[in-house]
Amino acid sequence: MLRLDEVSVSIAGIPILRRVSLEIGRGDTIAFVGRNGAGKTTTLRAIMGVVHASGAMSFDGTRLDAVEPYKRPGLGIGYAPEDRRLFSAFTVEENILMPARVARLSAEETRRRLARVHAILPELKEMGPRPAGSVSGGQGKMVALGRALMIGTRLILLDEPFQGLAPVLANRYAEALRALRDQDPDLGLLITESNPALLKSFADRTITIERGEIAAAPSGAAAV
Ligand code: ATP
User: Which residue puts its alpha carbon closest to atom 16 of ligand 1?
Assistant: First the structure.
C-alpha cells in the first residue's frame, strides 16, 4: 500500500532523514519508534508532503511524490500531527469536517463518514458544538484522530498520540483504535511512539528509526 524507497530529507542543509525505506501493507498496524529527534515526525511530514523529500514514495501504485501535498489526503491518507493543529475558533465538528471540505466530498459521503467517526468516537458527537479552543489537550488528540478518520479510509498516520495523555484518556484512545481496526481490518495504521514497549502488544510490526535512519530489524523479525 505505502512504500518509501530511500527517502531523504534535509532541512537548512542538515540531513534529517537518510535513505529511509519502509513498507506498510493493507491492514498493517505499524509501531514507528525512535527517541525524541530520531526523525519520526519528519517521516510523516515527508509522506504528507509537508517537507520536501528526495527518493521515491508510492501509495497503492501511485507515485506519491508526484501528488500535490494538499491532494494526498484525498487518496485516503489521514494524518493526526503531534501538535494537533486544530483551528481553535472553529467548533470541534467544523475541525473534523475540514478534510472532507478540502477533498470536496459530497454531502452524503460527508454524512456517512461523520457517522463512522461518531461510531468509533461517540464523545466527539457530544463535543461537536464546542469551540476547539475550549477542549483539553487530551480531548484535542481525540478530535485530531476524528479528523484523520474523516479522510483516512486507507491509511492513518498518528504522531505520538499517547504522548501526554492522562491514563484514562490513553485507555480510551487505545480502545477507539481497537474498535477502528475491528470495524475496518483493511485500514493501515502507522503510529509513532518514543517508548518502544508501549505499542508492542498492539502493533503487528515495529519499525525503529535512529538518528534519521531505519535500524536493522532484530534477527528473526520479518524484513521490511
Ligand atoms: P520528537 O519525538 O521529538 O518529535 P521525532 O523523532 O519526531 O522526535 P523529528 O521531529 O522528525 O523527530 O526531528 C528530527 C530532527 O530534525 C531533530 O533533530 C529536529 O531538531 C530536526 N528538525 C526537524 N524539523 C526541523 C526544522 N523545521 N528545522 C530544524 N530542525 C528540524
Answer: 16
- Going from the Cα of 116 to the center of ligand 1, the distance in angstroms, rounded, reads 33
pLDDT digits 0-9 by tens, 111-145: 999 999 999 999 999 999 999 989 988 889 999 99
The CB-based long-range contact list for 140-143 (8 Å cut-off, 24+ gap) reads 140/84, 140/86, 141/80, 141/84, 141/165, 141/169, 141/173, 142/169, 142/172, 142/173, 142/176, 143/84, 143/86, 143/92, 143/95, 143/96
* Residue 73 φ then ψ, to 5°: -60, -35
DSSP notation for 19-34: EEEEEE-TT-EEEEE-
Neighbours of 35 (CB within 10 A): 14
Ligand 1 atom nearest to 82, measured from its CA:
4
For residue range 167-194, list pLDDT tens digits in order: 888 889 999 999 999 999 999 999 999 8
Number of the ligand 1 atom closest to the C-alpha atom of 16: 16
How much distance in Å is there from the Cα of 87 to the middle of ligand 1? 23
Distance 16 CA to ligand 1 centre (A): 7
What is residue 218's predicted lDDT score, i.e. its pLDDT? 60
Top mutation candidate among 41, 43, 192, 209 for ligand 1, by most atoms within 8 Å of CB: 41
For 127, the 3-state DSSP assignment is helix
Note the pLDDT tens digit of each residue in 145-158: 999 999 999 999 99
